[in-house]
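Side project, low priority. Logging it here so it doesn't get lost.
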Amino acid sequence: MASILSDDLTFEPPPAKKGEPPWNVALLFPAQGEWTEEAYFALDTNRLVELSDGCLEVLPMPLPWHQWVVRFLHGLLNDFVSDRKLGEAFFAPMPIRLWPGQIREPDVIFLSHERLKDYYKTPDGADLVMEIVSAGHEHRQRDLDVKRREYAQAGIAEYWIVDAETTQITVLALDGDTYREHGVFDPGDVATSALLSGFSVPVKDVFAVPRPAEEA
């Protein structure tokens, strides 16, 4: 813990009342904008947390439908790349380094053998990532806009955006330093990969998670 203690102890928050967070605990950690990779990796938490521009971003706790979709997509991707010995498919929580000081945790990740040199180090970038968009304006903006720019900047060849709100899968392929739309796929379509020739996903199956009315 010593490596992430804050040196700035001049601010004294008011004593926390019952039902409030223990504000004094925040003094044990760097201020937003001052987080380093060392401090980030020293965190001990069961929450998904990303590092962006020296700030921590705490992601929403996933709901069962989210994890169902992650499991389904990872299973298809893992079978495809394993059968062809193309590399490894992983799922969150597993941080990847986009560039020094910028750490993201995509929901589903493909790393080629050429990229995955050391199983005991945080990977630098990825070859393909998938994000299942969480509800809420801030989370949607992060997946639809912010991460689209960041993943392109990091040189990730393909980005799948899986949007339960629109029941669409958008597959983005890197073209220079930006993404172009390889395809926007609806429930009647089969989403395809530009990077992994032959990899495809029936969109309706992705969003076939059981609904409460079907659980009788």
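Brief comment: Helices lie at 37-41, 64-83, 137-153, 203-206.
Revisit when time allows.
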